[in-house]
Amino acid sequence: MIEFGWTYFFQIVNIIVLYLLMRRYLFEPVTSFINRRREYTEGLIDEANDSFRRAKELQEESEAGLNEARREAQALVEQAVEHGKTMAAEISERAKAEEAARLKRAQQEIEEAKVRAIQEVRQEVADLSVNIAEKILEQSLSREAHMQLIEDALDRMDDAHVN
To answer: What are the phi and psi torsion angles at 50 (to 5°)?
Structure first.
C-alpha cells in the first residue's frame, strides 16, 4: 500500500512551486522570445516578399528596356547595312571608273609604242636601204655580188630584230 506522508505533500508543493517558478522565469521569457522571433521572422518574410515584388517589377522594367535597346540596336544594324551597301556601290563605281581610265591609258600607251616601233622600223629600213645602196655603188653590179649584198642585208636585219 501507498502511504501518504509529509514527503509526498512536500514533493507536491515542490512541484507546484517549481512549476510556478518555471512558468514565471522560464516559460514566459521563452514564450516571449518565441513570439518576438516569430514576429521578426514574419517581418523578414514580409520584407523578402516586398523585395521579391520590387525585384519582379525591376526585372520587368529592365526587360522592357532591354527589348527597346534590342529594337534600337536592330535599327542601327539595319541602318549600318544600308550605309554599307551604299558605300559598296560607290566604291564599285569608283573602281570601275578607275579601271576604265587605266584601260584607256594602257591603250594609249600601246598605240604610242606601236607608232614608235613603226617609226623605228622605218628608220632602220631606210638606214639599211642607204647602206645597201652604198655597198652596191661601191662594188660592181655582178649578179653574184648583188645576191651576196642582199643576203648580208637580210642577215643584218635578222640580227638587228633579234637583238
So the answer is: -65, -45
Q: Which three three-digit cell numbers place residue 31?
A: 514564450
Phi, psi of 100 (to 5 degrees): -65, -40
Q: According to the 3-state scheme, what is the secondary structure of the chain?
A: CCCCCHHHHHHHHHHHHHHHHHHHHHHHHHHHHHHHHHHHHHHHHHHHHHHHHHHHHHHHHHHHHHHHHHHHHHHHHHHHHHHHHHHHHHHHHHHHHHHHHHHHHHHHHHHHHHHHHHHHHHHHHHHHHHHHHHHHHHCCCCHHHHHHHHHHHHHHHHHHHHC
Contacts of 62 (CB under 8 A, 6+ apart): none
Q: Grid coordinates representing 35?
A: 513570439
All three cell numbers of 6, joined, read 509529509
For residue 130, the Cα-to-chain-centroid distance in whole angstroms is 72
Alpha-carbon gap, residue 11 to 87, rounded angstroms: 105
pTM value > 0.70: no
Task: Name the residue among 163, 84, 37, 112 with its Cα closest to residue 104.
Answer: 112
Query: Does residue 131 contact residue 153 with C-beta atoms inside 8 Å?
Result: yes
pLDDT in tens, 120-163: 887 787 777 777 777 766 655 566 766 777 777 777 776 766 55
